[in-house]
Amino acid sequence: MKRALYITLNEVRLYFQDKGDLAFGLLLPILTFALMYGAFGGQTLFKATAAIVDEDQGIYSQQLIQQLDDVNGISVDVMSATEAETKLERSDLLIVLFIPSGFSDTLESGGKAVMTFKQRGNGGQEGQILASIIQGVAGQINQGFQVRSGVKDNLEGRGIPDSSIDITVQDLLDKERQMPAVGVTEEVTGGSPDFINMYLPGIITMYVLFSLSLISRTIVEERRRGTLERLLTTRLSAGELFFGKFISIIARGFVQTLILLGLSYAVFQMFTPLSFLAALVVSLVFAAAAAGLGMIIASISRTEDAANWIAIVITMFMAMMGGTFFELAEGSTMARIGTFSLNTYANKALNTVISQGGSLGDAWQPLAVMAGVAVIGLIISRLIFKAVPGSK
């Protein structure tokens, strides 16, 4: 065991000396994390631009546009019908609101005015949200008409001009919008927790698995060059050499997660000391499972390119099917396929201790699966490794 640890320490030392591996294993995850935070982390509210074609240019179409522009996070881009059609055709826009001519006149005469959403496909998730917001604003205007109509009916015969009623009701509606009886506020604790909870587990698991290609390729290259055989001419046994390599892979993956979790702890203050330690334990078990998988790839591969491509295919499968950056519907075909992905269990365990504030006991099932993969992977790869000529 002592000699195996020497192998581990030497591998970790070489890892820190290799600037390419270090940049990929440590700096690239940090850079990805920073870029994703810059793109999404500061947005706690929905933000979008509503494309509108106003063919009416009347008082109520302008009122609709103004009220929509006053919604937090929504900006309005008024354009011509030709421009809108062109952008829809080129997919520059997925949804556009068309306000027809005569819209305001129809409303003033008591008729029913209709607006039209033109969209490509389903309009996209952002477009659907925008359409709901626009319908909500239109509903407020409709309620205003209903209030005016009700007030006029109640005041009929009292000699009050309709213009005075309209002005008074509009003032009251404006005051209600500015100071609603029921208000909604947001309270964010610890920076931007929703963003971190959503993306941090995926970043951790993705880059630990990406390191499989480098690890597997390195071991195959050492075997091809005869480095492993020369080491076995020393007092080092094949089992000690193998176990030392296995521990070194775990150490590499754990160092990556330690840095990312440490940054999250220091910058976003999203952990308690206990939850931070729990996340480290989950990361260590996941690194062990990934190491077992990496050793199997290295044992069955005969060339560096083969090891590299096998690792890439497996990594992409696990990242896509393991709910790395999007949630898979429970019971769906994708979710069932995802049960073969290490990411599924790592993400569940990390979300349990990070997002839900759970303990390691709450995450025992995914932890048990990952620990089982680590042990089975170690055994299988050792059996294959022993069968390789010159490795006994």
Can you put this structure into words, describing what you see?
This protein has a four-stranded mixed sheet, with helices on both faces. It has 15 helices and four strands. It has two domains: 2-41 and 192-387, no CATH class; 48-178, abc type-2 transporter like fold (3-Layer(aba) Sandwich), CATH 3.40.1710. It has helices at residues 2-17, 19-41, 59-69, 81-89, 103-108, 124-154, 162-178, 193-225, 227-232, 238-268, 273-300, 304-321, 333-337, 342-354, 364-387; strands at 48-54, 74-78, 95-99, 116-119. Helix 2 (19-41) packs parallel to helix 10 and helix 11 packs antiparallel against helix 14 (342-354). It is elongated and about 110 Å long. The chain is mainly α and 392 residues long.
Which features characterize this protein?
single chain, 392 residues, mainly alpha, abc type-2 transporter like fold, four-stranded mixed sheet, 15 helices, 69% helix, elongated
